[in-house]
Every structure is written in structure tokens, then in C-alpha cells.
């Protein structure tokens, strides 16, 4: 499955190869070190192409979870029912967004944006999101 392929390749792909660049930056809250339970968290994946993007969550135990695939036309495919109600996903002008509607301890971990380009997977650096 595509999710399994992404999970297996996490340690093997490097951003920046062949001119690809992925960057995740937190838009809100401005200081990620002060996350609170129930807070809305917005992540943005800036890319140099518009081919769709995956969002992956690596929890505190190191387990990887497929959250969503966002197509270039903004169609979303969530990994499970909880993801579809707990997260929002969209894209605009080569930027792919993930929103955690109400942050919980279960949401702590690192978030990755992943793209498939020329049959290679490109991973962004992980964006840590932890409660204080």
C-alpha cells in the first residue's frame, strides 16, 4: 500500500535531491513550545511543485501514522475515520496544509510532509509538536 511504502522509506529519502525542496513551518501558534491541549495547530508544507503531498505523524513511541494525502486539486484521502474528523487538510499554490483541530497528548510527535516525484519519495524535515 502507498502508506506502507512511505513508512518504509522514511529513513532513506533526503529532501533537496534533484531540485526538490520541502519545508514545513508552523503558522500557529507562533511559539510551538507553548502548545496547549485543545489548541488549534496549523502546519504548512511549502514545495516547489504541485503534485500532491502526504502528511505523516511519528508519535512519541516512534510509530508512524499516515494522516492524509492531498492531491494537487485539493482532494483529500484520510487514513481513518478519526483522522477525517480530527484533522483538516488543503492546498493552495504549491503549499499543503494540515490542521490539528484540537491538539491532544495523542497528537504529540513529529510531523512530516512527503511527496512522490519521478518515482522517488521526498521527506521534509520533521516538525516537532509537543506539549510543555
Task: Note down, in words, how this protein is organized.
With 132 residues, this protein is mainly beta. Strands 3, 4, 5, 8, 9 and 10 form a 6-stranded antiparallel sheet that branches. It is built from 2 helices and 10 strands, in the order αβββββαβββββ. It has a single domain (20-129), classed as Immunoglobulins (Immunoglobulin-like), CATH 2.60.40. Mean pLDDT is 80; it is low at 14-18 and 20-26. It has helices spanning 2-9, 81-86, and strands spanning 22-28, 41-47, 53-59, 64-70, 76-78, 87-92, 95-100, 109-117, 120-123, 127-129. It is a single-pass type I membrane protein. Keywords: Adaptive immunity, Cell membrane, Disulfide bond, Glycoprotein, Immunity, Immunoglobulin domain, Lipoprotein, Membrane, Palmitate, Signal, Transmembrane, Transmembrane helix. One of its GO terms (biological process) is cytotoxic T cell differentiation. Residues 33-125 form the Immunoglobulin V-set domain.
Number of strands: 10
**What is the typical, i.e. mean, pLDDT?**
80
Q: Report the helical percentage.
A: 10-25%
Architecture, CATH level 2? Sandwich
Q: Which consecutive residue ranges, at least 5 long each, have pLDDT under 50?
A: 14-18, 20-26
Number of helices: 2
When the domains are counted, the total is: 1
Q: For the terminal residues, how far apart are their CA atoms?
A: 35 Å
Q: What do we call the CATH homologous superfamily?
A: Immunoglobulins
* Radius of gyration over all CA atoms, rounded: 14 Å
State the name of the first-level CATH class.
Answer: Mainly Beta
Structural class: mainly beta
Which band does the percent of strand residues land in?
Answer: 35-45%
Approximate shape: globular
| SSE topology string | HEEEEEHEEEEE
| Biggest sheet layout | 6 strands, antiparallel
CATH structural fold name: Immunoglobulin-like
Protein name: CD8A protein
Domain Immunoglobulin V-set: 33-125
Organism: Leucopsar rothschildi (Bali myna)
Main location: membrane
Amino acid at each position: 500500500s502507498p502508506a506502507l511504502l512511505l513508512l518504509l522509506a522514511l529513513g532513506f529519502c533526503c529532501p533537496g535531491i534533484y531540485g526538490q525542496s520541502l519545508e514545513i513551518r508552523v503558522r500557529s501558534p507562533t511559539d510551538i513550545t507553548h502548545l496547549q491541549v485543545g489548541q488549534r495547530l496549523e502546519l504548512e508544507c511549502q514545495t516547489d511543485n504541485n503534485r500532491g503531498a502526504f502528511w505523516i505523524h511519528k508519535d512519541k513511541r516512534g510509530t508512524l501514522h499516515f494522516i492524509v494525502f492531498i492531491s494537487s486539486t485539493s482532494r483529500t484521502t484520510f487514513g481513518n475515520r478519526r483522522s477525517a474528523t480530527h484533522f483538516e487538510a488543503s492546498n493552495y499554490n504549491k503549499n499543503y496544509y494540515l490542521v490539528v483541530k484540537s491538539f491532544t497528548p495523542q497528537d504529540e510527535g513529529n510531523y512530516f510532509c512527503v511527496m512522490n516525484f519521478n518515482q522517488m519519495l521526498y521527506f521534509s524535515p520533521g516538525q516537532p509538536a509537543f506539549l510543555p
